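Researcher: Go.
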Amino acid sequence: MLENRFLGHKQAVYDIQLDGLGGWFSAGSEGWIVHWPSGTESHGRLIAQTGEPIYSLCVLGSQSEFILAGGQSGTVYAFRKMGFPVLQSGLNHSNQDLQTSDGNDVSIDKNVRSAEELRSDNFNDDNVNLANGSSNELSSQMKIPVELKFEKMWEFRIHEKGVFDFNEYSEFQSKESRIIVSCSADGKLALWDINNPMKFLVKSIAIPGSLRCINSNFNLGNRVRVGGQSGLVYEWEILGDNWDNFEFQRIKEYTIGRNTLFQMVQHQKICALGGRDAKIWITDEFLNIHKQIDAHWFSIHALAFSPCGKLLASGSMDKCIRLWDVDGGDILIHKELAHKSSVNKIIWLDHETLISCSDDSQIISWKIKH
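Model: Structure:
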């Protein structure tokens, strides 16, 4: 089942996201964002660093035009692929065009360093080329395509505590703007414009405890669901049609488990949730529970539907990865001690390849034999 190990991070890896080009991005405790161009590429390419732990990533656009990184402090960092045009109402790196809602200027870092400069500071010949356990080739042999270089757009403290999840808010999008909804350990949801969150930002009333995962897919319209503590999913309605009158209104609570929910994923009309209870709940689109699975020994930090939706992969603090039949709830594959520490995120690279990351600093690809 094991295919490759991708080593390059020095500390825990918290999130991985597909790049739309056959590879993925990773980020974690040391504040690095690393690009892995494909499942067989042996080099990780450092494209940005934030200076603080990154809890979450959001990749926007079919060609990874934008990357958002949620930091431990509540700060969000935005990066744009170099050569990709700024949205019409967006930033042009001029301070007079960037202001907060109270009119104060915001400074943007113009001295963006290239991926090669960043990599030379942090990746050396001992830790760059470590897929398959190899470290013989030097990082100087790596070539970075121009389209995979990123520049920093801005950084702004949107939340008061760590940012755990992002979703693009599809109900209100245009050629001039891209709207994001985020959740945080501060117990708040935030709605903001990627072009200028300093000016276009609305927050919800705080919920006691931490908010960990968001679902704002197309089927929900102007509603957003977010998983929190005590096994609750909160449903919010976003009222208004422009930044002058947007507001959050909490309309419903769903009781799923007893403890914090860390994951909430959806494929078409089927949802899966998991968290500190170490159980998986399979629900319909209205969050009516159809199955409860005693899935792991400890907290579930990772859930991912296969592209066809028939399989569900789970990863846990118990270091295991398991593969489930969604319809029957039966376990198909159990990988004991898949990592040396907690499994933090799982994604499907294709119909038969899983990518996982962990507190042990490793990223591993797994080939699934049907």
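Model: Residues 1-73+75-157 form one domain.
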